[in-house]
Specification:
about 240 residues; about 0% strand; disordered C terminus; DNA-binding; 10 helices; mainly alpha
Length: about 240
Amino acid sequence: MGRQPCCDKLEVKKGPWTAEEDKKLISFILSNGPCCWRAVPKLAGLRRCGKSCRLRWTNYLRPDLKRGLLNEAEEQLVIDLHASLGNRWSKIAARLPGRTDNEIKNHWNTHIKKKLLNMGIDPVTHQSLRKETETLSATDYLADFVKHLPELPETNGSDENSCSSDERCDSNLFKNAPLISSLLGDDPDIPQVDVPWEFPSGEQIFDSVSWDDNISSLLDFQGFDCFSDVEMNLSNVLELRHEQ
DNA sequence: AACTTAATCAACCGCTCCGCT
DNA sequence: AAGCGGAGCGGTTGATTAAGT
């Protein structure tokens, strides 16, 4: 006797949420509060799994969410927290108001991890990756790096396999390896891995604004131009929430 | 302009945790 | 104490977009 599935998989819709679905969910949650997720889809008139509704609300629709990339301070905080908490994204997210575990996890995997690696820091242990290599000379390090490059097919001297098209021979290969780049630079004896942190120019849509500002921005941002009924409920809900 | 590759992030899946009976 | 069910968590997938050729 197995456990009942959380929802009828034949009946539920999957994939990206439509604006209409978002509207229904927001309207329902604002009127009734986020409770009993299993019942939410039915009560809100959605053909979605309760789990999916919860995720959509907590990760995307919640009015107290910030939008846009994590700023430098937030990123540093994530790194610090990760060093002590590990991959406990929800715990980390709890320390960053307006950020979700999913958002932080994604940001970690796509941005921070790479930055730490570029800085010579192991993103798992937060220890320097260069412990073993920092005593090597630059030449030894370079030799060690090249030795560990993936094996490539033997060349037979023909043009199509010649070095010009070979990744191993492409100087661009080193462009993403700051340590190697620095070794190839002016002062190879002192590897410099001071890679600037890149922040795409995306400005914060929601920076440090109030809950009330956030929700009105949310409604604007989601492009719901027929939201007057929700907005009418909104101030009541907000007042209730703030009183609690 | 067309195609390919890489990057991003919303959403899903399966597991664990925890409260209730 | 054991079993059940709902909620939450973390890992992974896949669609979309951007960048490169």
